[in-house]
Specification:
alpha+beta, seven-stranded mixed sheet, seven-stranded antiparallel sheet, 11 helices
């Protein structure tokens, strides 16, 4: 009995203690005393969530104070095409002469001509040369006055004026410009040292803070802030697109201005915005510092950028194309054609080759190939690994110099007895039957609901090869498709020509 009495008292004491603890917990808030191992009914037991102990900056002024003197406004004087006032009539006639002699405009035109306006043949009068002004942004990269801006800011400019943060104006001269990357280098010669900034060595991280300084709408020295939204953006501006996307407000006039990280380093040169309305919508694009550094050094040394040239038209490799070629994965750049007289043609590269690597550097797609080739000097020998006839082959190519009017490698889609390929939605005729010069098979009709239409084939497209085999008649196409089907291919590769351009299209086959 004594033991039972003690046990009872102990139980009462424990219950009393629990009651006090519960009361305390309620007073403190239940969540404050639940352990990490406590499982609440009808809820999940979770591991610790991700925690990041990094605070965003609350004050950008230290960065702005340090770098703002290096950012300038760029004023460009541009010659405007003169407008011609043609008073001539049609086919050799003259509007002035055709007017009645007593017409009031007769006297007006006589007085107008007598005021010394230059006259051309047939009554044409050319107005005096006219000039316009445009504005952008830029920034010094050396204390002796070299500064960076965009090519489109200085394009067609005849005079350049730099306005510094303290309002002083300086004349500048153009050292060089590169249209393909939209970069330009100017030089101010003055008896003073300029505050300058440097390009960042490391690429920014997505989510990293960025400060943009420039001349939006002609308002010099404006500062905006945001974050890096994405990297490696291709916006279709050129073969070397690799833009940094930022959401710092960037508007007209910001072009050529810098985007800074929190160390005061330039991570990119503001070049473009996406804006349906013409104003900022939070999507701006900057040329990466890595690209700008190489281009600007070339401009400083040579006044231009010299790039290697392969001379091929290429396109990306889709899953269907990869399967039709027997590739394990969709990567590389397939050669649509090698340009006449190009290094590629001289080395033996041909349509249908899929470029997988250059000197061991893997090629993911057309954009990567363009960048790799452009990084080489002309007359450099490179080993290009291609996929041809179901196996790898290495071809040595001596690169040329990129012509001004050409691209290193461009993905230019090309497009064009009646025989039907019902599974693919095609009807075919010979080139002669279609009234087209040359050889090959021409698409006579495309089923709008068929596989060919989905891949963008159109009436008039010319089929040159099927599965790597040259075709001259519709029956050749049928045989090549049948052979591919016998070999277990799920798709067959067509080489298509239209308007002197070439592309490859993989059409799926209805197997089984």
């Amino acid at each position: 009995m004594m033991q039972n009495s003690q046990t009872t008292e102990t139980s009462r004491g424990l219950r009393s203690r629990r009651t006090r603890l519960l009361a305390g917990a309620m007073a403190l808030g239940v969540a404050g005393v639940l352990s990490a191992q406590t499982v609440i009914p009808n809820q999940f037991a979770l591991a610790d969530a991700v925690k990041v102990d990094v605070a965003g900056p609350t004050d950008f002024s230290p960065v702005v104070t340090a770098v703002q003197p290096a950012v300038v406004s760029v004023r460009v004087k541009q010659e405007v095409e003169p407008r011609m006032m043609n008073f001539g009539g049609g086919r050799g006639g003259n509007f002035f002469e055709d007017l009645p002699k007593d017409h009031p405009l007769q006297r007006f035109f006589r007085q107008f001509g007598e005021q010394g306006q230059p006259q051309g043949r047939g009554g044409d009068r050319q107005q005096p040369r006219q000039y316009g002004m445009s504005q952008g942004s830029g920034f010094f990269i050396s204390e002796d006055g070299y500064l960076v801006t965009n090519h489109h800011v200085i394009d067609k400019g005849t005079e350049f004026t730099i306005v510094t943060d303290d309002g002083k104006e300086f004349d500048a001269k153009l050292i060089g410009a590169d249209k393909r990357t939209d970069l330009a280098l100017l030089k101010v010669d003055a008896d003073r040292e300029f505050t300058y900034v440097k390009f960042a060595d490391d690429a920014p991280h997505v989510g990293e803070w960025v400060v943009a300084i420039g001349n939006p709408f002609g308002l010099g020295g404006s500062v905006t802030a945001g974050i890096v939204s994405a990297r490696g953006r291709d916006i279709g501006a050129g073969p070397y697109d690799d833009f940094i996307q930022i959401d710092a407000p960037v508007n007209r006039g910001n072009s050529g201005g810098p985007a800074f990280n929190m160390k005061g380093e330039v991570i990119g040169v503001n070049a473009a915005i996406f804006s349906p309305s013409g104003g900022n919508v939070g999507i701006a694009f900057a040329i990466p510092a890595s690209t700008a550094t190489d281009v600007i050094m070339d401009l400083r040394d040579d006044g231009s950028v010299v790039r290697g040239w392969l001379g091929v038209h290429i396109q990306g490799v889709s899953d269907d194309i990869a399967e039709s070629l027997g590739l394990d994965e969709a990567r590389g750049a397939i050669v649509a054609d090698a340009q006449d007289g190009s290094p590629a043609e001289k080395a033996g590269l041909k349509s249908g080759d899929t470029i997988l690597s250059v000197d061991g550097t893997k090629v993911e797609g057309p954009r990567e190939l363009s960048k790799i080739i452009a990084a080489y000097e002309p007359d450099t020998d490179v080993d290009i690994t291609v996929w041809r006839d179901g196996k790898e082959k290495t071809i040595e190519v001596t690169l040329g110099k990129l012509p001004e009017a050409e691209n290193v490698a461009s993905a230019e889609p090309v497009a064009p007895e009646r025989t039907s390929l019902d599974d693919m939605g095609l009807e075919l005729v010979t080139a002669d039957e279609a009234g087209v010069d040359g050889e090959g098979v021409v698409i006579a009709e495309v089923d709008p609901s068929g596989a060919a239409a989905e891949k963008g084939l159109r009436r008039g497209d010319r089929i040159v090869e099927v599965a790597g085999v040259a075709v001259k008649t519709p029956s050749d196409v049928v045989k090549a498709v049948a052979d591919a089907e016998e070999n277990g291919r799920k798709a067959v590769l067509f080489r298509i020509e239209n308007n002197d351009a070439t592309r490859f299209v993989a059409l799926p086959m209805n197997i089984g």
